[in-house]
Prior knowledge:
The chain has eleven helices and no strands. The chain has helices at residues 2-11, 15-31, 42-63, 67-77, 84-97, 101-114, 119-132, 135-148, 153-163, 172-188, 195-235. It is elongated and about 60 Å long.
Amino acid sequence: xxxxxxxxxxxxxxxxFTAVIFFxxxxxxxxxxxxxxxxxxxxxxxxxxxxxxxxxxGDSYYKLEDYKKAAEYYELAMKKKEQYWAAYYKLAKxxxxxxxxxxxxxxxxxxLERDPExxxxxxxxxxxxxxxxxxKHSIAVYEELLQAQPHNQEYLENYLAxxxxxxxxxxxxNAVKFTTAYDTLKTEYPENKNLQTFEDKxxxxxxxxxxxxxxxxxxxxxxxxxxxxxxxxxxx
Length: 236
């Protein structure tokens, strides 16, 4: 009944009030459409929100271990100044997980320049060097880490692994470094499961070094003998 009564009252409204109703309806109609003149700063806010969403999406894919997809969103997220370095670091980690060493290396170097005392970053850099086959640089970084933390189990293991990574370049100076680090690991962590592996590999490499040394001595002796015979025949 109230609805009908209200309807009857509206039928008796004046022309002026009708105009007001029409104007109000017009306002509501305009509110549902885009304004011809944008609100100042509105576009910038929308843009910032979009790049924040990119970062969130990157994190979601990162947690799912879809590092390729995560990298795409982190690259987009870097366009927002406030989250540039956070996205940059996450992108660098994605490159490590996808074994894109040439992309990861310069990024980790750049991050380390901003935080030169960060041991975790240095360890990551040493790892990247080793995966590239750049054992010289990897060894140097691990030695720097071990100077600061000489009993760090992870650093000792990785250092030993890099020292023996390239069979052809296992020299006596590296053998001395190896035995020193190995003794430290064995003393500090006698239950370490990799001790036997390191010991076996060391013996194997030392045999190779000794064999090469013996071959070199034999070749040198043979060369001297040949030279001596040549000199004798020339004199005769």
